[in-house]
Amino acid sequence: MIFLLTKGVRSEVTEVVGEAGSQVVLPCICEAAQCDPAAITWSKDNKGTVWRKQSSGLQYWGSNWFNRENSRVQCPHLKFAKGDYSLEINGLKEDDAGLYTCKVEIKGHSTDKRIMLRIIEVARKSTSVFPSTPMWGDDVSVRCSVTPWPEGAVVYWTLNNQPYAPKTRTLSGRAVDVQASDKLAGTWTCSVHRSSNVWSASVELSVTGIIQPPKQDTKLYAALGSSFTMPCVFSPSLSPKAVLVEKLDSGFQIFNNRSASSSSWDKSIVIQEVVPENEGRYRCGGTIQERRLSQTMQLVVAKIVKSKKKGTTMLSCQLSDPSEVTDYQWVHVSYDINGTESVGPVQYGQTVPVKEDFGEWTCRFLGTNGLLGNVTTQVHVMAGLSGEKSSAVSSNTGTVVGLSFLLIILLLVLAQMYKNHRRRRRILQYPALETIVHTISNEREEREKDRVKK
């Protein structure tokens, strides 16, 4: 019966797959009622003994698996008492793949367990002159290997957790040949399917080139009147020449504003104050190894417009291109005399009524991936300016009315003085007449006095 059981166990092969460079555990569990003390021997086909332990407790390692610093293989001693003689292998290499045998001897009887270890690895190869990272336009090959390769297996690829279907398949889909670009950078994962088993491994693919803006036709958002940095950043390992930031919808004119950095790879441009004319499409470009790299972007300008509607002040958040905006949020912030900040409830919508005529209002516009940008206005500043203007107009009107009234009185006085002057000149032309007039006047006064005395 023991012979039949041993023969049956030997006919079964357990498959284990480990990723290159990682740790793997090859299982070997004693199923007898009494497993201790036991002699355990781990061996590999054509490689001899890997590790063994005598029933006395002495342990030995194969020469290919041990060095003075550390051993890549070991059996956890704490699990021996439970009959677990599994083998741990660290720092997996492609040469570690193959068929392993765990032999357990208890009181003269032995059982064998066979484990097929497959090593899966994803590696990339590039034609880049830079040994570490390929550059835009370089030919890159991403290869998926399983050693030994399982018969009938099918390979599927994903890029950044999204299915990727190669245009051309080689070696039954084990390799993908691409031309490096920003769209192909990220985590490449190959999944090997056979029957109900699925084994996966990944590799990171970094690509040097223009890292900001991160992709073609990136939309950037800036508030009207604010300072803004137009990005044009290359990978730090590159030293581009003939770098240019230009506005595409203005006749390809060079965009001349001061640089944001003095580094050789950061050629971003600073706009000191955003104006409506800054809205539009731009291009960042540079030459590396006689290869011209470029990336386009669009600057979207945001502003807040104030208006009156049925006696209510309305604030509207307006963007030169709102195509990516899915929602608008308004936040009102005010300050008391001690400078304490008070934040009001969030309001939603592109246009909102303003009840509080003080503090600041911020419009935050969001897209499918979160916040795109914001723009802020000082409501109390606008109200104050409006009030000062009204007071000034009222004061000027009163001054004009008062000056006009004084001018009219002055003209009347001058007219009366002129009339008296003219009449006096007419009388002086006839002296005799003047004597008669005075005589008559004197007689009249004398008569009046006599009448009073009587």
Description:
With 454 residues, this protein is an alpha+beta fold. Among the domains are: 2-118, Immunoglobulin-like (Sandwich); 128-205, Immunoglobulin-like (Sandwich); 210-300, Immunoglobulin-like (Sandwich), CATH 2.60.40.10. The protein has 3 helices and 31 strands. It has helices at residues 2-10, 379-428, 431-453, and strands at 13-19, 24-26, 39-44, 48-53, 59-61, 73-74, 87-89, 98-106, 109-126, 139-147, 154-159, 162-164, 175-179, 186-194, 197-205, 210-212, 218-223, 228-230, 233-234, 241-247, 253-254, 269-271, 280-288, 291-309, 312-319, 327-335, 341-343, 347-348, 351-354, 360-367, 370-378. The strands form 7 sheets. Strands 1, 3, 4, 5, 8, 9, 10 and 13 form an 8-stranded mixed sheet that branches. Strands 17, 20, 21, 23, 24, 25 and 29 form a 7-stranded mixed sheet that branches. Strands 26, 27, 28, 30 and 31 form a 5-stranded antiparallel sheet that branches. It is elongated and about 180 Å long. The protein starts with a helix and ends with a helix.
pLDDT under 50 segments (min length 5)?
1-10, 381-394
Please write the CATH class name of the domain at 2-118: Mainly Beta
**How many distinct beta strands?**
31
Structural class: alpha+beta
C-alpha termini separation: 178 Å
Overall 3D shape: elongated
Radius of gyration: 48 Å
Strand content: 35-45%
Q: Give the integer mean of the pLDDT values.
A: 81
Reported CATH architecture of the domain at 2-118: Sandwich
SS field, number of helical segments: 3
Query: Considering DSSP H and I runs of 4 or more, what fraction of the residues is helical?
Result: 10-25%
CATH superfamily of the domain at 2-118: Immunoglobulins
